[in-house]
Amino acid sequence: xxxxxxxxxxxxLLLSLAACGGGSDNSKNKDGKEEIVMWGSWSGDQIxxxxxxxxxxxxxxxxxxxxYVMQENVEEKLLTGIAGGELxxxxxxxxxxxxxxxxxxxxxxxxxxxxxxxxxxxxFYEESVKEMTYSDKLYGLPLLNDNRILFxxxxxxxxxGVKPPTTW
Length: 168
Known about the structure:
The protein has helices at 2-18, 45-60, 74-84, 97-101, 111-116, 126-131, 154-160; strands at 34-40, 64-70, 90-91, 133-134, 137-138. With 168 residues, the chain is α/β, with parallel strands linked by helices. The protein has one domain: Periplasmic binding protein-like II (D-Maltodextrin-Binding Protein, domain 2, 3-Layer(aba) Sandwich), CATH 3.40.190.10. The strands form two sheets. It has a three-stranded parallel β-sheet with strand order 2-1-3. The chain has a two-stranded antiparallel sheet with strand order 4-5. It is elongated, with a radius of gyration of 18 Å. The two termini are 31 Å apart.
């Protein structure tokens, strides 16, 4: 659990400094902390867990205050934010989306921050890190891993003359 919390807090700190190119004004709150806005689509019990981790992070240091803002449709909100120039400091999304938005120039590479903060990239599952990398630049750190698998009916593909890929 400590390793997971450390990974999440590292992600929050790193991404708070760079994730979406600094669209928000990062104003100081009443405690003098810089407010970091994080968007995501987590809700219900997921938010309870996330808020515990954010609260722990906020109490652990006196420079930043992370504020989670749940979005019903985070992609739609992001597109609106890109058009209007109002982006969050951090965005939580499925890893594959990195390849959709990094080419648009709306994400900030994290390579320099990862190096400066001595983030141990070996602590992250390599394939998940690859999903958050575009053109040899790292744009995010994986929060969770999941299994992705593809089932297909060999007979139907053969009948259709389709040869399935050997890698995926």
